[in-house]
Specification:
Beta-Lactamase; five-stranded antiparallel β-sheet; Roadblock/LC7 domain-containing protein
């Protein structure tokens, strides 16, 4: 399955999913699948969260807490799961506040192995 197909599979199988993306820590998207009716700028959201994720990664390394694997951010409108793929890339799932967050996190973890293999 291609990277694009894997991202589409995640979006199609998670209730409330607005976008699934692969991004570099500098905020540049590698690939993405978005739902047209999302209602706000998902790319800007992802770029800003990439900056935060880079700082969290650095802090975890600094205090020797181990390698970062996953971060989730919940606001009053969205839920975002970010999962590390390798040293340079991570995947992002953006969903509505009432979406199926548990299934989204599960699919990011499960499909993350496929995505990491495809990107290697």
């Amino acid at each position: 399955m291609s990277i694009r197909d894997t991202l589409k599979d995640i979006v199609d199988n998670v209730e409330g999913a607005l976008a699934a993306m692969i991004m570099a820590y500098d905020g540049i998207p590698v690939d993405e699948i978005t739902v047209p009716q999302s209602g706000f700028d998902l790319q800007s959201l992802s770029v800003e969260y990439a900056t935060v994720l880079k700082e969290i990664k650095r802090a975890a390394e600094l205090v020797k807490a181990g390698a970062m694997e996953e971060v989730s951010i919940t606001t009053n409108q969205t839920r975002v799961a970010l999962r590390v793929l390798n040293e340079d890339l991570f995947t992002v799932l953006i969903m509505t506040r009432d979406g199926n967050f548990g299934k989204g996190r599960y699919l990011l973890r499960l499909k993350g192995y496929d995505l990491a293999r495809e990107l290697a």
